[in-house]
Amino acid sequence: MPETPTPSSEENASQTVRALLRLREMILDGELSAGERISEPVVAELTGISRTPIRTALVRLQEEGLLEPIRSGGFRVRAFSLDEIRDAIEIRGTMEGLAARLAAERGVSSERLARLTACVDEIDAVLADDSGLSDTRFAAYVAGNARFHELLEQACDSDVLRRQLDRAKSLPFASPNGFLRVQAVAPDALNTLRIANAQHRALVEALSAREGSRAEALMREHARIAQRNLHATLANPGIKALIPGASLIVDS
Amino acid sequence: MPETPTPSSEENASQTVRALLRLREMILDGELSAGERISEPVVAELTGISRTPIRTALVRLQEEGLLEPIRSGGFRVRAFSLDEIRDAIEIRGTMEGLAARLAAERGVSSERLARLTACVDEIDAVLADDSGLSDTRFAAYVAGNARFHELLEQACDSDVLRRQLDRAKSLPFASPNGFLRVQAVAPDALNTLRIANAQHRALVEALSAREGSRAEALMREHARIAQRNLHATLANPGIKALIPGASLIVDS
DNA sequence: GTACGCCTGGATGTATACATAAAAAATATA
DNA sequence: TATATTTTTTATGTATACATCCAGGCGTAC
């Protein structure tokens, strides 16, 4: 009964990894609501995992920023104000800008440039047709977008920077894909996605020409798309649920 | 016997905190050398703390970046190449630049500006005398410098940014005080410290005038002092030991 | 002399027991 | 009825036991 019937990626993982994935899922899906104290025995009962691995998963999630420690012990689910989300996006843009600048200044190998170009081309191909944005096309865009940002991360060729970037992206609303579902429901969605990919293409150009300052500015501006989407969500709260981890957002 | 006779800050802390502090100390002091696998039973024996709190401290240190996981299990002490140190400093400068820009753009309260000004004044007072840089004067500079950077962190008034900044500063060589001892042994130490504080003062000016771009540029340039000190260390390996965590540095 | 395999020592990951301390509930009281 | 107080319940932090797995050494065979 406690066996996970899903043949997902959690098959042969350690208990700690399972606990981490499950807890993150519970937090982002709102099964554990913002501000709520997390009871280790309850989670242990719910997941069928003993307290020890759950405990280390909790520590990891605290470092990740999804949990905050309680003075008297234990953790609670972190709540995020709109200002904090704005700042998290700004941080991501700044870090991606840094990665882009360093990559441009230091030079990116032709293989990596080719992979980046191919990625941008693929996204353009997905967006080429003027007909409506179907679910499969949208999913393809999401995958392409994630891949592009991953390739940029690799292009800077720096482990310490990658670590910091990963951390900046770890909050769901700060991730490059965080607000895409919000963007997709806008009437001019296809257009804004094309503009975003134009920025991708411009970045590859800048990397190739070793234009560090331009590369940095581009990625900063690129992240502002998420800021716009955040504002769009404010104007139309009905679409708030499209944001991953929406239940963590609290108005301040 | 296993009682810590030092009345330090570790008195009434939890075992986990004690393990964290002790392990960090052991790593930075080179008691555990770079690349070495950390044996939990050995550390437990050495510290008189059971494996459980040590284990969570290890997880924290991994998130902090001082340890890296071993595929087959456990952790090893991370080794840092000069390139990685350079990047860590660059990241710190970029994040402090972001904090400065946001603080300037959003405005800093007059009380905070006053505290920043007072801090800069105090540092200038420490550096006023042209006589040699005594140990006590140097210690006063270190304290003032740490305080200034802490005040900047507060000035941006953003928890998410603070968290990310703390992380950027957590590597010893990336910290604002990381290379100060290297700087202090240079013949023109007093001068370079004065220049550094001039940058501090300029930042307060920029914050006060809400000049975001200038504030950002200043903190980026400010971090480059550490880069210069890093290069100075390369030219004169005899002073390498002045860097905290020197044993973690490996030439690549 | 070298390569292969087995075997022993030790380490990690996990579960669990227990003491302390906090939170919640229930009772008594103004 | 609201509040203060005591009691009960529950959670956390820590130590420890144990199974599995990895690493390294020793012996053997070629």
TrEMBL record, chains A, B:
One of its GO terms (molecular function) is DNA-binding transcription factor activity. It comes from the Bacteria. InterPro entries: GntR_C (IPR011711), TF_FadR/GntR_C (IPR008920), Tscrpt_reg_HTH_GntR (IPR000524), WH-like_DNA-bd_sf (IPR036388), WH_DNA-bd_sf (IPR036390). Coiled coil: none annotated. Keywords: DNA-binding, Transcription, Transcription regulation. Residues 13-80 form the HTH gntR-type domain. Pfam families: FCD, GntR. This is GntR family transcriptional regulator. It comes from Thauera propionica. The lineage of its organism: Bacteria, Pseudomonadati, Pseudomonadota, Betaproteobacteria, Rhodocyclales.
